[in-house]
Design brief:
single chain; two-stranded antiparallel sheet; 2 strands; about 10% strand; elongated; membrane; transmembrane; transmembrane helix
């Protein structure tokens, strides 16, 4: 993947990229649930 003139390669190739996406989704869901519990 190219951003501007820089070649960006995800860590671990395709699998690492997929894991990073999954991790970010799970982390955002967990943070949202925690925020709701704290701010209730």
């Amino acid at each position: 993947m190219r951003i501007g003139g820089v070649e960006v390669r995800p860590l671990g190739g395709g699998l690492g990229c997929l894991l990073m996406i999954l991790f970010s989704i799970v982390a955002s869901v967990v943070l949202t649930v925690l925020a709701n519990l704290v701010l209730r």
